[in-house]
Amino acid sequence: MSNYYGLMEKIQSKKAKVGVIGLGYVGLPLAVELANSGYSVYGIDVDKAKVAQLKKGSSYIIDVNEEELNKAQQANNFIPTTDFSAIKQLDCVSICVPTPLTKSQEPDMSYIQSAVEQIKKYLHEDLLIVLESTTYPGTTEELIEVELLKMGYKAGENYFLCFSPERVDPGNKNYNTKNTPKVLGGTTKFCTELGVLLYSNFIDKVIPVSSPKVAEMSKLLENTFRSINIAFINEMAMLCDRLNIDIWETIEAANTKPFGFMKFTPGPGIGGHCIPLDPMYLAWKAKSSNFYSRFIELAQEINKTMPDYVYNKVSYALNKHQKSIMGSKILILGMAYKPNIDDLRESPGLDIYNLLEENGASLSYHDPHAQTFKDRTGEVINSVELEYENLTDFDCVVVITNHAFYDYEKILSYSKLIVDTRNVFEDNSNLKVHKIGYSHPLSEEIVNQG
Ligand code: SAJ
Asked: Across the strands, what pairs with 424?
Protein backbone atom coordinates (compact mmCIF):
# COMPACT_ATOMS: atom_id res chain seq x y z
CA MET A 1 0.00 0.00 0.00
CA SER A 2 1.24 3.52 -0.67
CA ASN A 3 2.56 5.94 1.86
CA TYR A 4 0.15 8.55 0.51
CA TYR A 5 0.05 10.50 3.76
CA GLY A 6 3.81 10.44 4.12
CA LEU A 7 4.24 11.89 0.64
CA MET A 8 1.50 14.43 1.29
CA GLU A 9 3.34 15.61 4.40
CA LYS A 10 6.67 15.82 2.53
CA ILE A 11 5.05 17.89 -0.24
CA GLN A 12 3.19 20.15 2.17
CA SER A 13 6.29 20.80 4.28
CA LYS A 14 8.38 21.23 1.08
CA LYS A 15 10.75 18.52 2.31
CA ALA A 16 9.91 16.60 -0.88
CA LYS A 17 12.75 16.35 -3.40
CA VAL A 18 11.42 17.21 -6.87
CA GLY A 19 12.93 16.44 -10.28
CA VAL A 20 12.26 18.04 -13.66
CA ILE A 21 13.27 16.01 -16.73
CA GLY A 22 13.87 18.27 -19.74
CA LEU A 23 15.23 21.79 -19.15
CA GLY A 24 13.82 23.62 -22.15
CA TYR A 25 11.37 26.54 -22.41
CA VAL A 26 8.93 24.57 -20.19
CA GLY A 27 11.17 22.59 -17.81
CA LEU A 28 13.67 25.27 -16.84
CA PRO A 29 11.08 27.90 -15.79
CA LEU A 30 9.22 25.14 -13.91
CA ALA A 31 12.39 23.95 -12.12
CA VAL A 32 13.43 27.48 -11.12
CA GLU A 33 9.92 28.36 -9.93
CA LEU A 34 9.79 25.13 -7.87
CA ALA A 35 13.24 25.81 -6.39
CA ASN A 36 12.46 29.41 -5.51
CA SER A 37 9.27 28.27 -3.79
CA GLY A 38 11.45 26.27 -1.39
CA TYR A 39 11.72 22.78 -2.90
CA SER A 40 15.01 21.01 -3.50
CA VAL A 41 14.98 20.50 -7.29
CA TYR A 42 17.09 18.29 -9.56
CA GLY A 43 16.99 19.60 -13.13
CA ILE A 44 17.78 16.59 -15.33
CA ASP A 45 18.68 16.96 -18.99
CA VAL A 46 20.58 14.82 -21.53
CA ASP A 47 22.27 17.91 -22.98
CA LYS A 48 25.65 18.25 -21.22
CA ALA A 49 26.16 21.77 -22.61
CA LYS A 50 22.84 22.98 -21.14
CA VAL A 51 23.68 21.48 -17.73
CA ALA A 52 27.19 22.97 -17.80
CA GLN A 53 25.79 26.40 -18.71
CA LEU A 54 23.23 26.23 -15.90
CA LYS A 55 25.94 25.18 -13.41
CA LYS A 56 27.73 28.40 -14.33
CA GLY A 57 24.52 30.27 -13.47
CA SER A 58 23.87 31.18 -17.10
CA SER A 59 20.33 30.93 -18.56
CA TYR A 60 19.58 30.06 -22.20
CA ILE A 61 15.81 30.56 -21.85
CA ILE A 62 14.35 34.02 -22.54
CA ASP A 63 11.86 33.76 -19.63
CA VAL A 64 14.39 32.62 -16.99
CA ASN A 65 16.52 35.53 -15.86
CA GLU A 66 19.88 34.83 -14.27
CA GLU A 67 18.89 36.54 -11.03
CA GLU A 68 16.11 33.96 -10.49
CA LEU A 69 18.43 31.13 -11.54
CA ASN A 70 21.23 32.25 -9.22
CA LYS A 71 18.77 32.76 -6.34
CA ALA A 72 17.73 29.11 -6.68
CA GLN A 73 21.32 27.92 -6.86
CA GLN A 74 22.54 30.04 -3.96
CA ALA A 75 19.81 28.46 -1.81
CA ASN A 76 21.16 25.07 -2.98
CA ASN A 77 17.67 24.38 -4.23
CA PHE A 78 18.50 23.79 -7.89
CA ILE A 79 20.92 21.10 -8.98
CA PRO A 80 21.30 20.74 -12.79
CA THR A 81 22.51 17.26 -13.76
CA THR A 82 22.67 14.75 -16.60
CA ASP A 83 22.54 11.90 -14.09
CA PHE A 84 19.10 10.24 -14.13
CA SER A 85 20.01 8.14 -11.09
CA ALA A 86 19.02 11.25 -9.09
CA ILE A 87 15.48 9.85 -9.53
CA LYS A 88 16.30 7.28 -6.82
CA GLN A 89 16.18 10.03 -4.20
CA LEU A 90 13.24 11.98 -5.66
CA ASP A 91 9.73 12.09 -4.23
CA CYS A 92 8.23 13.78 -7.32
CA VAL A 93 9.29 14.11 -10.96
CA SER A 94 7.82 16.21 -13.81
CA ILE A 95 8.51 15.26 -17.43
CA CYS A 96 8.91 18.27 -19.74
CA VAL A 97 10.46 16.78 -22.88
CA PRO A 98 9.68 17.69 -26.53
CA THR A 99 6.81 16.13 -28.45
CA PRO A 100 7.58 17.06 -32.07
CA LEU A 101 6.14 15.56 -35.25
CA THR A 102 7.86 12.99 -37.44
CA LYS A 103 8.51 13.77 -41.13
CA SER A 104 5.18 12.03 -41.88
CA GLN A 105 3.41 14.48 -39.53
CA GLU A 106 2.79 11.84 -36.85
CA PRO A 107 3.47 12.17 -33.10
CA ASP A 108 7.12 11.55 -32.21
CA MET A 109 6.90 9.95 -28.75
CA SER A 110 10.59 9.03 -28.58
CA TYR A 111 11.50 11.73 -26.05
CA ILE A 112 8.72 10.70 -23.64
CA GLN A 113 9.64 7.04 -24.11
CA SER A 114 13.31 7.78 -23.33
CA ALA A 115 12.33 9.66 -20.18
CA VAL A 116 10.06 6.79 -19.08
CA GLU A 117 12.87 4.28 -19.68
CA GLN A 118 15.10 6.31 -17.38
CA ILE A 119 12.38 6.55 -14.73
CA LYS A 120 11.86 2.77 -14.91
CA LYS A 121 15.56 2.24 -14.10
CA TYR A 122 15.31 4.19 -10.84
CA LEU A 123 11.62 3.78 -10.01
CA HIS A 124 10.71 3.38 -6.35
CA GLU A 125 7.55 3.30 -4.24
CA ASP A 126 5.54 6.47 -3.62
CA LEU A 127 7.10 8.42 -6.52
CA LEU A 128 4.74 11.09 -7.93
CA ILE A 129 5.13 11.35 -11.73
CA VAL A 130 3.62 14.29 -13.64
CA LEU A 131 3.80 14.34 -17.45
CA GLU A 132 3.67 17.91 -18.87
CA SER A 133 4.61 17.41 -22.51
CA THR A 134 1.79 18.23 -24.92
CA THR A 135 0.47 14.97 -26.34
CA TYR A 136 -2.58 13.06 -27.55
CA PRO A 137 -5.24 11.85 -25.07
CA GLY A 138 -4.27 8.44 -23.69
CA THR A 139 -0.50 8.94 -23.68
CA THR A 140 -0.12 9.00 -19.88
CA GLU A 141 -2.07 5.77 -19.62
CA GLU A 142 -0.49 3.99 -22.60
CA LEU A 143 3.16 5.03 -22.27
CA ILE A 144 3.50 5.32 -18.50
CA GLU A 145 0.71 3.63 -16.51
CA VAL A 146 0.71 0.43 -18.60
CA GLU A 147 4.52 0.31 -18.71
CA LEU A 148 4.96 0.67 -14.96
CA LEU A 149 2.19 -1.84 -14.24
CA LYS A 150 4.36 -4.46 -15.97
CA MET A 151 6.90 -3.80 -13.20
CA GLY A 152 4.32 -4.22 -10.45
CA TYR A 153 3.70 -0.52 -9.95
CA LYS A 154 0.00 0.38 -9.85
CA ALA A 155 -0.85 4.07 -10.13
CA GLY A 156 -2.57 5.35 -6.99
CA GLU A 157 -1.35 2.40 -4.96
CA ASN A 158 2.46 2.28 -4.83
CA TYR A 159 3.20 5.34 -6.99
CA PHE A 160 1.19 8.30 -8.27
CA LEU A 161 0.61 9.49 -11.84
CA CYS A 162 -0.80 12.74 -13.32
CA PHE A 163 -0.87 14.77 -16.52
CA SER A 164 -0.64 18.55 -16.35
CA PRO A 165 -0.31 20.43 -19.67
CA GLU A 166 2.29 23.18 -19.96
CA ARG A 167 0.94 26.62 -20.79
CA VAL A 168 4.19 28.46 -21.33
CA ASP A 169 4.00 31.36 -23.76
CA PRO A 170 7.64 32.32 -24.43
CA GLY A 171 8.26 36.06 -24.23
CA ASN A 172 4.88 36.80 -22.64
CA LYS A 173 5.52 39.59 -20.14
CA ASN A 174 2.15 39.21 -18.39
CA TYR A 175 1.82 35.46 -17.94
CA ASN A 176 4.48 33.15 -16.50
CA THR A 177 4.69 29.70 -14.89
CA LYS A 178 3.48 30.99 -11.51
CA ASN A 179 0.44 33.04 -12.55
CA THR A 180 -0.90 30.96 -15.45
CA PRO A 181 -3.71 28.66 -14.26
CA LYS A 182 -2.64 25.00 -14.48
CA VAL A 183 -4.91 22.05 -15.30
CA LEU A 184 -3.98 18.71 -13.67
CA GLY A 185 -5.59 15.27 -13.88
CA GLY A 186 -4.48 12.17 -11.92
CA THR A 187 -5.04 8.50 -12.64
CA THR A 188 -6.82 8.16 -9.28
CA LYS A 189 -8.24 10.62 -6.75
CA PHE A 190 -5.15 10.24 -4.58
CA CYS A 191 -2.92 10.95 -7.61
CA THR A 192 -4.85 14.12 -8.43
CA GLU A 193 -4.75 15.31 -4.81
CA LEU A 194 -0.99 14.87 -4.54
CA GLY A 195 -0.40 16.55 -7.92
CA VAL A 196 -2.65 19.48 -7.00
CA LEU A 197 -0.93 19.79 -3.61
CA LEU A 198 2.54 19.97 -5.18
CA TYR A 199 1.65 22.39 -7.97
CA SER A 200 -0.48 24.60 -5.69
CA ASN A 201 2.64 25.26 -3.61
CA PHE A 202 4.22 27.27 -6.44
CA ILE A 203 1.45 28.04 -8.94
CA ASP A 204 -1.33 30.49 -8.06
CA LYS A 205 -4.24 28.49 -9.49
CA VAL A 206 -4.40 24.72 -10.13
CA ILE A 207 -7.54 23.23 -11.72
CA PRO A 208 -8.09 19.52 -10.96
CA VAL A 209 -9.83 17.40 -13.60
CA SER A 210 -11.04 13.82 -13.39
CA SER A 211 -8.33 12.07 -15.42
CA PRO A 212 -5.07 12.51 -17.36
CA LYS A 213 -7.08 12.17 -20.59
CA VAL A 214 -9.22 15.22 -19.82
CA ALA A 215 -6.05 17.21 -19.05
CA GLU A 216 -4.34 15.98 -22.24
CA MET A 217 -7.42 16.81 -24.34
CA SER A 218 -7.89 20.27 -22.78
CA LYS A 219 -4.48 21.39 -23.98
CA LEU A 220 -5.09 20.14 -27.53
CA LEU A 221 -8.54 21.76 -27.52
CA GLU A 222 -6.98 25.12 -26.53
CA ASN A 223 -4.44 25.13 -29.32
CA THR A 224 -6.58 23.50 -32.00
CA PHE A 225 -9.22 26.15 -31.31
CA ARG A 226 -6.52 28.73 -31.97
CA SER A 227 -5.25 27.09 -35.17
CA ILE A 228 -8.78 26.80 -36.62
CA ASN A 229 -9.64 30.41 -35.83
CA ILE A 230 -6.40 31.68 -37.30
CA ALA A 231 -7.10 29.64 -40.44
CA PHE A 232 -10.61 31.07 -40.62
CA ILE A 233 -9.41 34.67 -40.43
CA ASN A 234 -6.69 33.88 -42.98
CA GLU A 235 -9.35 32.61 -45.37
CA MET A 236 -11.46 35.72 -44.74
CA ALA A 237 -8.37 37.82 -45.50
CA MET A 238 -8.00 36.16 -48.92
CA LEU A 239 -11.72 36.69 -49.58
CA CYS A 240 -11.60 40.38 -48.59
CA ASP A 241 -8.54 40.80 -50.79
CA ARG A 242 -10.63 39.58 -53.72
CA LEU A 243 -13.50 41.91 -52.78
CA ASN A 244 -11.26 45.01 -52.24
CA ILE A 245 -12.51 45.17 -48.64
CA ASP A 246 -9.97 45.82 -45.85
CA ILE A 247 -10.08 42.72 -43.59
CA TRP A 248 -8.17 44.58 -40.85
CA GLU A 249 -10.76 47.37 -40.64
CA THR A 250 -13.50 44.73 -40.85
CA ILE A 251 -12.04 42.80 -37.88
CA GLU A 252 -11.83 45.98 -35.78
CA ALA A 253 -15.46 46.71 -36.60
CA ALA A 254 -16.57 43.17 -35.69
CA ASN A 255 -14.46 43.36 -32.52
CA THR A 256 -16.65 46.16 -31.18
CA LYS A 257 -19.21 43.46 -30.43
CA PRO A 258 -18.89 43.04 -26.64
CA PHE A 259 -19.94 39.37 -26.75
CA GLY A 260 -19.86 36.43 -29.12
CA PHE A 261 -16.78 37.46 -31.10
CA MET A 262 -13.08 36.78 -30.46
CA LYS A 263 -10.44 38.69 -32.43
CA PHE A 264 -7.85 36.84 -34.48
CA THR A 265 -5.70 38.48 -37.14
CA PRO A 266 -4.45 37.24 -40.52
CA GLY A 267 -0.74 36.63 -40.98
CA PRO A 268 1.86 35.12 -43.30
CA GLY A 269 1.12 31.68 -41.81
CA ILE A 270 1.55 30.11 -38.37
CA GLY A 271 4.81 29.27 -36.65
CA GLY A 272 6.01 28.22 -33.24
CA HIS A 273 6.28 25.07 -31.19
CA CYS A 274 2.57 24.71 -30.40
CA ILE A 275 -0.02 25.89 -32.90
CA PRO A 276 1.34 24.17 -36.04
CA LEU A 277 1.97 20.91 -34.15
CA ASP A 278 -0.58 20.34 -31.38
CA PRO A 279 -3.63 20.00 -33.69
CA MET A 280 -1.80 17.26 -35.63
CA TYR A 281 -1.55 15.24 -32.40
CA LEU A 282 -5.31 15.47 -32.06
CA ALA A 283 -5.90 14.67 -35.76
CA TRP A 284 -3.66 11.62 -35.45
CA LYS A 285 -5.52 10.36 -32.39
CA ALA A 286 -8.85 10.98 -34.14
CA LYS A 287 -7.74 9.04 -37.21
CA SER A 288 -6.52 6.15 -35.06
CA SER A 289 -10.07 6.08 -33.68
CA ASN A 290 -11.54 6.11 -37.22
CA PHE A 291 -12.64 9.69 -36.80
CA TYR A 292 -11.59 12.17 -39.51
CA SER A 293 -11.53 15.74 -38.20
CA ARG A 294 -12.09 17.92 -41.25
CA PHE A 295 -11.76 21.12 -39.22
CA ILE A 296 -8.22 20.33 -38.07
CA GLU A 297 -6.93 19.18 -41.45
CA LEU A 298 -8.58 22.09 -43.30
CA ALA A 299 -7.12 24.62 -40.83
CA GLN A 300 -3.64 23.18 -41.31
CA GLU A 301 -4.09 23.32 -45.10
CA ILE A 302 -5.23 26.97 -45.12
CA ASN A 303 -2.51 28.09 -42.71
CA LYS A 304 0.07 26.26 -44.81
CA THR A 305 -1.03 28.11 -47.98
CA MET A 306 -0.44 31.56 -46.49
CA PRO A 307 3.23 31.74 -47.57
CA ASP A 308 2.08 31.11 -51.17
CA TYR A 309 -0.50 33.89 -50.81
CA VAL A 310 2.22 36.27 -49.57
CA TYR A 311 4.50 35.22 -52.43
CA ASN A 312 1.73 36.00 -54.93
CA LYS A 313 1.13 39.36 -53.24
CA VAL A 314 4.82 40.23 -53.71
CA SER A 315 4.64 39.12 -57.35
CA TYR A 316 1.49 41.22 -57.89
CA ALA A 317 3.06 44.31 -56.28
CA LEU A 318 6.26 44.06 -58.36
CA ASN A 319 4.21 43.51 -61.48
CA LYS A 320 2.51 46.87 -60.89
CA HIS A 321 5.98 48.33 -61.40
CA GLN A 322 6.73 46.22 -64.47
CA LYS A 323 9.07 44.05 -62.40
CA SER A 324 9.26 40.31 -61.75
CA ILE A 325 10.39 38.34 -58.72
CA MET A 326 13.30 37.13 -60.87
CA GLY A 327 16.14 39.58 -60.42
CA SER A 328 14.33 41.94 -58.03
CA LYS A 329 16.16 43.01 -54.86
CA ILE A 330 13.83 42.03 -52.00
CA LEU A 331 14.32 42.58 -48.26
CA ILE A 332 12.33 40.59 -45.69
CA LEU A 333 11.87 42.37 -42.33
CA GLY A 334 11.28 39.97 -39.40
CA MET A 335 11.91 36.21 -39.62
CA ALA A 336 10.90 35.00 -36.10
CA TYR A 337 7.47 33.33 -35.90
CA LYS A 338 6.00 36.15 -33.82
CA PRO A 339 7.05 39.62 -32.70
CA ASN A 340 9.80 40.43 -30.21
CA ILE A 341 11.23 36.92 -29.84
CA ASP A 342 14.08 35.09 -31.62
CA ASP A 343 12.29 31.76 -32.17
CA LEU A 344 12.36 30.57 -35.78
CA ARG A 345 10.63 27.21 -35.27
CA GLU A 346 8.12 26.59 -38.08
CA SER A 347 8.28 30.29 -38.92
CA PRO A 348 6.32 31.04 -42.14
CA GLY A 349 8.99 33.61 -42.96
CA LEU A 350 11.31 30.70 -43.75
CA ASP A 351 8.82 29.33 -46.30
CA ILE A 352 8.41 32.76 -47.88
CA TYR A 353 12.19 33.22 -48.01
CA ASN A 354 12.58 29.86 -49.79
CA LEU A 355 9.76 30.60 -52.28
CA LEU A 356 11.26 33.98 -53.24
CA GLU A 357 14.78 32.55 -53.47
CA GLU A 358 13.65 29.57 -55.60
CA ASN A 359 12.09 32.05 -58.05
CA GLY A 360 15.21 34.11 -58.55
CA ALA A 361 14.84 37.03 -56.16
CA SER A 362 18.01 38.76 -54.99
CA LEU A 363 17.06 38.23 -51.38
CA SER A 364 18.16 39.61 -47.97
CA TYR A 365 16.51 39.50 -44.55
CA HIS A 366 16.77 41.47 -41.34
CA ASP A 367 15.63 40.38 -37.90
CA PRO A 368 16.81 42.14 -34.72
CA HIS A 369 16.40 38.95 -32.66
CA ALA A 370 16.81 35.98 -35.04
CA GLN A 371 20.25 36.71 -36.47
CA THR A 372 20.83 33.60 -38.55
CA PHE A 373 19.09 30.54 -40.05
CA LYS A 374 19.68 27.78 -42.60
CA ASP A 375 17.77 27.91 -45.88
CA ARG A 376 16.28 24.83 -47.58
CA THR A 377 19.68 23.94 -49.07
CA GLY A 378 21.27 24.10 -45.60
CA GLU A 379 23.16 27.30 -46.41
CA VAL A 380 23.60 29.61 -43.39
CA ILE A 381 21.88 32.94 -44.02
CA ASN A 382 22.70 35.91 -41.80
CA SER A 383 20.59 38.95 -41.06
CA VAL A 384 21.86 42.09 -42.84
CA GLU A 385 22.42 45.34 -41.00
CA LEU A 386 19.39 47.63 -41.30
CA GLU A 387 20.02 51.18 -42.55
CA TYR A 388 16.62 52.79 -43.17
CA GLU A 389 18.11 55.17 -45.77
CA ASN A 390 19.25 52.16 -47.82
CA LEU A 391 15.74 50.75 -48.13
CA THR A 392 15.47 52.68 -51.42
CA ASP A 393 17.97 50.15 -52.86
CA PHE A 394 15.33 47.42 -52.68
CA ASP A 395 12.64 46.82 -55.30
CA CYS A 396 10.36 45.51 -52.54
CA VAL A 397 10.40 45.36 -48.70
CA VAL A 398 8.27 42.57 -47.15
CA VAL A 399 7.18 42.96 -43.50
CA ILE A 400 6.76 39.40 -42.20
CA THR A 401 7.15 39.90 -38.42
CA ASN A 402 6.21 43.21 -36.85
CA HIS A 403 8.91 43.46 -34.18
CA ALA A 404 8.58 46.54 -31.95
CA PHE A 405 12.23 47.26 -32.85
CA TYR A 406 11.32 48.74 -36.26
CA ASP A 407 10.68 52.43 -37.05
CA TYR A 408 7.72 51.92 -39.38
CA GLU A 409 7.54 55.58 -40.39
CA LYS A 410 11.08 55.37 -41.75
CA ILE A 411 10.30 52.08 -43.50
CA LEU A 412 7.33 53.75 -45.18
CA SER A 413 9.28 56.81 -46.10
CA TYR A 414 12.39 55.12 -47.55
CA SER A 415 10.88 52.03 -49.22
CA LYS A 416 9.90 52.10 -52.88
CA LEU A 417 7.38 49.25 -52.53
CA ILE A 418 6.10 47.42 -49.45
CA VAL A 419 4.22 44.16 -48.89
CA ASP A 420 2.76 44.26 -45.39
CA THR A 421 1.61 40.95 -43.81
CA ARG A 422 0.84 42.46 -40.36
CA ASN A 423 -1.13 45.68 -41.14
CA VAL A 424 1.57 47.88 -39.71
CA PHE A 425 0.59 50.41 -42.42
CA GLU A 426 -3.14 50.86 -41.87
CA ASP A 427 -3.69 53.74 -44.32
CA ASN A 428 -4.85 52.33 -47.66
CA SER A 429 -4.27 55.51 -49.62
CA ASN A 430 -0.59 54.83 -50.15
CA LEU A 431 -0.38 52.77 -53.33
CA LYS A 432 3.19 51.64 -52.65
CA VAL A 433 1.87 49.56 -49.76
CA HIS A 434 0.24 46.22 -50.62
CA LYS A 435 -1.06 44.39 -47.56
CA ILE A 436 -2.54 40.95 -47.12
CA GLY A 437 -6.30 41.02 -46.70
CA TYR A 438 -6.80 43.99 -49.00
CA SER A 439 -6.19 45.07 -52.61
CA HIS A 440 -6.36 48.58 -53.99
CA PRO A 441 -9.35 48.84 -56.36
CA LEU A 442 -7.99 48.90 -59.92
CA SER A 443 -9.83 52.17 -60.60
CA GLU A 444 -7.96 53.86 -57.73
CA GLU A 445 -4.64 52.66 -59.11
CA ILE A 446 -5.39 53.92 -62.60
CA VAL A 447 -6.57 57.32 -61.31
CA ASN A 448 -3.59 57.68 -58.98
CA GLN A 449 -1.08 56.66 -61.61
CA GLY A 450 -2.61 59.12 -64.07
N1 SAJ B 1 -1.05 34.08 -35.35
C2 SAJ B 1 -1.83 34.63 -36.36
N3 SAJ B 1 -3.00 35.24 -36.03
C4 SAJ B 1 -3.44 35.31 -34.73
C5 SAJ B 1 -2.63 34.74 -33.72
C6 SAJ B 1 -1.45 34.13 -34.05
O7 SAJ B 1 -1.46 34.58 -37.53
O8 SAJ B 1 -4.50 35.89 -34.50
C9 SAJ B 1 0.19 33.38 -35.70
C10 SAJ B 1 1.43 34.01 -35.08
O11 SAJ B 1 1.97 34.99 -35.93
C12 SAJ B 1 2.37 32.80 -34.94
C13 SAJ B 1 1.42 31.64 -34.74
O14 SAJ B 1 0.13 32.07 -35.19
O15 SAJ B 1 3.12 32.60 -36.11
C16 SAJ B 1 1.32 31.18 -33.30
O17 SAJ B 1 1.10 32.34 -32.55
P18 SAJ B 1 0.60 32.27 -31.00
O19 SAJ B 1 0.20 33.66 -30.61
O20 SAJ B 1 -0.40 31.20 -30.84
O21 SAJ B 1 1.93 31.99 -30.21
P22 SAJ B 1 2.54 30.63 -29.69
O23 SAJ B 1 2.78 29.66 -30.77
O24 SAJ B 1 3.69 31.01 -28.84
O25 SAJ B 1 1.35 30.04 -28.82
C26 SAJ B 1 1.44 30.07 -27.45
C27 SAJ B 1 0.53 28.97 -27.02
N28 SAJ B 1 0.77 28.68 -25.64
C29 SAJ B 1 0.79 27.39 -25.23
O30 SAJ B 1 0.60 26.46 -25.96
C31 SAJ B 1 1.10 27.18 -23.81
C32 SAJ B 1 -0.94 29.36 -27.23
O33 SAJ B 1 -1.79 28.41 -26.57
C34 SAJ B 1 -1.21 30.71 -26.67
O35 SAJ B 1 -2.59 31.05 -26.93
C36 SAJ B 1 -0.31 31.73 -27.35
O37 SAJ B 1 1.04 31.36 -26.99
C38 SAJ B 1 -0.61 33.14 -26.91
O39 SAJ B 1 -1.80 33.41 -26.66
O40 SAJ B 1 0.33 33.93 -26.91
From this structure: none
Helix (H) / strand (E) element for 160: namely strand 160-163
* 139 shares a domain with 82: yes
407-433 pLDDT, tens digit each: 999 999 999 999 999 999 999 999 999
Q: Are 179 and 277 contained in the same domain?
A: no
What are the pLDDT digits (tens) for 235-269? Answer: 999 999 999 999 999 999 999 999 999 999 999 99
Number of domains observed in the structure of the chain: 2
Question: Residue 422 and residue 404: Cα distance in Å, rounded?
Answer: 12
Q: How far is the CA of 275 from the centre of ligand 1 (A)?
A: 6
Domain identity same for 204 and 243: no
User: 395 C-alpha vs ligand 1 centroid, how far in Å?
Assistant: 31
Same-domain check for residues 156 and 271: no
Task: Please give the backbone phi and psi of residue 248, each rounded to the nearest 5 degrees, phi first.
Answer: -70, -45
Ligand 1 mutation pick, 270, 345, 421, 423, max ligand atoms within 8 A of CB = 270
Domain span at residue 67? 4-210
